[in-house]
Amino acid sequence: MPDNVDASERMVDNWTKQIQETAARYQAMAARVQGQTVTERSKDNTIEVTVDSKGLLKNLVISEAVSGKRMAEVSAQVMRLVQLAQSRIPELLQQAMAETVGTTDETANRVITEAQSTFPEAPPEEDLAQPEPERHHRFGPEEEEPPPPPSSQTSPPQNQPQPKPIPRRRRSQDDDDDDFGGSILS
User: Fold this and answer.
1) Helix (H), strand (E) at residue 96
2) b/e per residue 63-88 (b: at least 16 CB within 10 A)
3) Cα 32 from Cα 100, distance rounded (Å)
4) SS3 state at 104
5) Tens digits of residue pLDDT in 131-164
6) Angle between helices 89-100 and 2-34 (to 10 degrees)
7) 53 with 34: CB under 8 angstroms?
8) Which of 25, 14, 38 is nearest to 99 (CA)?
9) What is the value of pTM for the model shown?
10) Residue 49 CB: number of other CB atoms within 10 A?
11) Is the pLDDT of residue 180 over 60?
């Protein structure tokens, strides 16, 4: 019987050792990933974005050279760069996992799969919709547009009853003082 107890203790010790080693590898992976960032720059180097390993924007640099560009174009470029940086996060995680916990670990593979679904590949630059042209704002009275000409296919219905005018009540002398509890001049 003592052999069975010794064997059980060795088995529990081995499990404990494996769990501790696995936990240490995951902590090393988490520490490594935690501090990593991904930075992307525009082709003309006027915009730079940095995201952390969670995909959060950590830094945005827009140079003075973009002052001649339309803001819609600049914002579209920023968003594309953020998506591009985020799309590199699964690769970052996969590399960190390969070096710490290994690529055969089921949990590591689930983390990578989750990252791939959270941060899909960025769309190709050609697929980006062109920003809308800038609109000009007018300050002042708006001009009324003329009503559209009547179409020849539709004619107003014949014999349509006209709405009856609403009869108006004659005002009495007391009407002036009853609106708000009395005259404002008193």
Assistant:
1) helix 89-100
2) eeebeeeeeeebeebbebbbbbbbbb
3) 9
4) coil
5) 455 555 555 555 555 556 665 555 555 666 666 7
6) 150
7) yes
8) 25
9) 0.58
10) 25
11) no
